[in-house]
């Protein structure tokens, strides 16, 4: 008969293994995304991409950065802040 402690320990071990696997998969996905997004893409090629890929390659990173800031800092006018943040980021956008 398995005791409750043994079952709890198995659950904890399984949970830790799952967390490690998720972290490993996230790291691989981030490396893959960084490699793909560092490639120079022409305007013509951008225009042929599916919408989700176009967004991922052009604005996703900046929008995520802005939303992360908003979630942590709660600016008085978050929409205005995000708009100004994106305008500032657009000044260094080269395509």
Distance between the termini: 66 Å
Ranges where pLDDT stays below 50 over 5 or more residues in a row are none
Radius of gyration: 21 Å
Q: Please tell me the CATH architecture of the largest domain by its name.
A: Up-down Bundle
CATH superfamily of the largest domain: cAMP-dependent protein kinase regulatory subunit, dimerization-anchoring domain
Order of helices and strands: HHHHH
Total strands? 0
Structural class: mainly alpha
Q: How much of the polypeptide forms β-strand, as a percent range?
A: under 5%
CATH uppermost class of the largest domain: Mainly Alpha
Number of domains: 2
Q: Enter the CATH topology name of the largest domain.
A: cAMP-dependent Protein Kinase, Chain A
| Mean pLDDT value | 77
Question: How would you describe the overall organization of this protein?
Answer:
It is a single chain. This protein is mostly helical and 95 residues long. The chain has 2 domains: 1-39; 42-95, cAMP-dependent protein kinase regulatory subunit, dimerization-anchoring domain (cAMP-dependent Protein Kinase, Chain A, Up-down Bundle). It is 79% helix and 0% strand.
């Amino acid at each position: 008969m398995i005791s409750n402690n043994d079952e709890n320990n198995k659950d904890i071990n399984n949970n830790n293994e799952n967390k490690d696997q998720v972290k490993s998969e996230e790291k691989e996905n981030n490396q893959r995304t960084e490699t793909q997004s560092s490639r120079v893409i022409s305007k013509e090629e951008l225009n042929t991409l599916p919408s989700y890929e176009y967004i991922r390659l052009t604005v996703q990173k900046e929008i995520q950065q802005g939303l992360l800031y908003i979630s942590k800092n709660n600016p008085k006018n978050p929409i205005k802040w995000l708009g100004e943040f994106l305008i500032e980021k657009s000044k260094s956008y080269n395509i």
